[in-house]
Specification:
Length: 334
């Protein structure tokens, strides 16, 4: 028969509430009482019920993680970091794969709330009003990766997307590209995707290249969609000098389509990506891309979340954490 808190209280000759105070360190007790209770706990080999204890302490050591596509190389590396850092701080994670569906994301948000998670790392392709309302009213902190909600006090971990997109666009222009298609893994009302477009436009303007809206493609998350877009370009004879995809998977899908139609890369078309996931260096030709510190994004997000959970943040801590990026030149560009 399992030893209960009543057994400990009886043998130590104290109340159940006193035993609870010793276990949870919720209220002070005298040294001699604490030592007596701890001795009985060791003697009886008593193990507190974790569920009951979490209710008393309001601490579950659970972190929720919602991602749009677990098969993504970028998401996989971020998750690896989240899990490793959570483990260091003795937190478990509840992972939810939303398949980029808003209804599924809202369902998971409610699920995680009911599971009494202490915090949430949220990665979504699009932050909508329903998400904002939930985050505003949530009784736990939320950290976003590569997203930012201006009207909410949520923490965001990102790179300088405007500078990164500027650097890549300027690089392409400096290497003979006069027409550059931008395949955007996001929507126009996302802050970071707007920043990428600003950087792209700035580089074009500085080099006297007119901005062409027809070269801008929004919401290109899936490789199938990217392939179809490039195939349509080929059919309509509108293939540009360069294709800049803000996602490595999409860039590789674009290269696949071009090579399937006998285009040479980078001689005929330069193709560049964003993230520098592992596949960027494995595919042939190797992909020129913006290198994000993917593991560090996940690591920083998790550390900031746990710091906020434990109320260790400082008044001057910034809500947006900007990580460094690099332009990695490989074989897919001139």
């Amino acid at each position: 028969m399992a030893i209960t808190i009543k057994d400990v209280a009886k043998k130590a000759n104290v109340s159940i509430s006193t035993v609870s105070r010793v276990i949870n360190k919720s209220k002070p007790v005298s040294d001699d009482v604490r030592e007596r209770v701890e001795e009985v706990i060791r003697e009886l080999n008593y193990e507190p019920n974790p569920i009951a204890r979490s209710l008393v302490m309001k601490k579950t050591n659970l972190i929720g993680v919602i991602v749009p596509d677990i098969s993504s190389f970028f998401i996989g590396e971020v998750l690896n970091a989240i899990e490793q850092i959570a483990k260091i701080y003795k937190y478990d994670i509840i992972l939810c794969n939303s398949y980029a569906e808003k209804e599924q994301e809202m369902k998971y948000l409610d699920l995680l709330k009911n599971k009494q998670v202490e915090g949430l790392v949220f990665i979504s392709y699009k932050i909508e009003n329903e998400h904002k309302k939930f985050i505003k009213n949530a009784d736990f902190p939320v950290v976003l990766i590569n997203r930012y909600i201006k009207e909410l006090d949520s923490i965001s971990v990102s790179i300088d997307h405007e500078k990164a997109a500027y650097d890549m666009t300027k690089y392409l222009v400096d290497h003979e590209a006069k027409s550059i298609a931008l395949l955007r893994s996001g929507y126009s009302d996302d802050m970071f995707i707007n920043d990428q477009l600003k950087g792209y436009k700035k580089a074009l303007k500085e080099n006297d290249i007119p901005f062409d809206q027809s070269f801008i493609y929004e919401g290109v998350f899936r490789i199938e969609k990217a392939y179809d877009i490039i195939e349509k370009m080929i059919e309509e004879d509108t293939v540009p000098d360069a294709i800049f995809a803000t996602n490595d998977d999409v860039a590789i899908a674009a290269m696949n389509c071009l090579m399937d139609h006998d285009y040479k890369i980078p001689e005929d078309v330069q193709v560049v990506g964003f993230h520098d996931t592992k596949i960027a260096n494995l595919f042939r030709p190797k992909l020129t891309t913006i290198k994000q510190p993917i593991f560090d994004l996940g690591s920083m997000a998790t550390r900031m979340l746990i710091k906020t959970i434990n109320e260790e943040t400082e008044p001057d801590d910034e809500l947006i954490k900007i990580m460094p990026h690099d332009l990695i030149v490989r074989e897919s560009s001139k």
